[in-house]
Amino acid sequence: MNTSTRPASELTLRRIAQTWWPLAFSWLLMSVEGPAHSAIAARLADPEVNLAAWGGIVFPLALIIEAPIIMLLPASTALSKDWDAYVRVRRFMMRTGFLLTVLHAIVAFTPLYDLIARHVIGAPEVIIEPGRIGLMIMLPWSWAIAFRRTQQGVMIRFGHTKTVGTGTLIRLCANGLVLLAGYLIHTLPGIVVASSAVAVGVVAEALYAGWRARPIIRHQLRLAPRAAVPLTSRDFLAFYIPLALTSLISLLVQPIGSATMSRLPRALDSLAVWPVLSGLLFLLRSGGIAYKETVIALLDEPHALRHLRRFMVILTTGGTALLLLIALTPLAGLWFEKVMALSPTLVALGQRGLILGMFLPTIATLDSWFQGLLMHRRQTRSITEGVILYTVAITTGMGVSMALDRLGAPIVGVYAAVIVFQIAWALQVGWLGLKYGYKQELTR
Q: What CA–CA distances, in Å, run from 258 to 52, 265, 269, 411?
């Protein structure tokens, strides 16, 4: 259609980009957070031990504990259309955030930690105590994340996506100040510096999100017309429980990865390079991850599906091209050696792992695309089914990796993790595509 004849209300690629880029910028800033922690820890005492404790114990466990509230961002974006719906979402957030904080304290401050770290994860003994300290420092994590995601959903719903990026920038600045202080002091363990930076950062962002959302709630959300069909508690739970199960199940596999790397050749090297490699891979797929909320927020617009699909193709192509540019040029060595200060041994592991993960940006964008489509229809059960398939695939793949090791065909732990996670995620996306196509046929 010619631009001059296009209705003013029709969705355009430019408007999609205007909605997407602040969210992508926010995810990009968050993706810088992990490499920044690793870069500082690598320059402090016992870098391999502290990097392994962060990537093998602290961060995976913190993510699992917060799993039930991770999906509050898309849920708040999709559901906070009027005041009554927002109150229902906020009430759930406050109660769940409190309970998860209590759970975090129980894991970090009781003998339950030893059971999980030693016997479930099977972490090397040298990283057990550093991991415990880091998890204790991370106590504010779950509630701060829950509150921030709920408020950001309101911002996105009412067209204030740029404020989300501003909040992430504040989080990163708070992170950076703590990291800089830790580096200048130079006597604190890397795990203490990294965990403190994360805790301070998430609290700072949560405080900003609460302050910035207040005028949006007062002047837009409260004045929004009430939905024709009010959101009941039953409706909310039917929508959200599958999403909570989705995030919980998907994050439960994080310790599976750590446990597998701990049992495969070069365990300590793999655990040490994993947070650096996974941080870079997260950075390279951050644009695709941000697309889910964009799809949810814009699908009601005229001709949205066609234009959103075109933008999705642009994202998949660009993300894959950027990863290959880094992986197949000296940029990879520059990142791992100069920026992240890894030893030559770990640099080689990271470079090969990056090449093995070449399809992850495409998979991430397709995952956001199908999840956004299914959430818009409130077909969240299909998303849970996909994650169950993902978990089964990862468990099977990791089991095969350890079986090959026992049979005399070993694979380095970090390589096994990248390959297995990538295949499992592709299977999940394939399932979502099938379910979306099936639902599409039923509604035509």
A: 9, 13, 12, 15
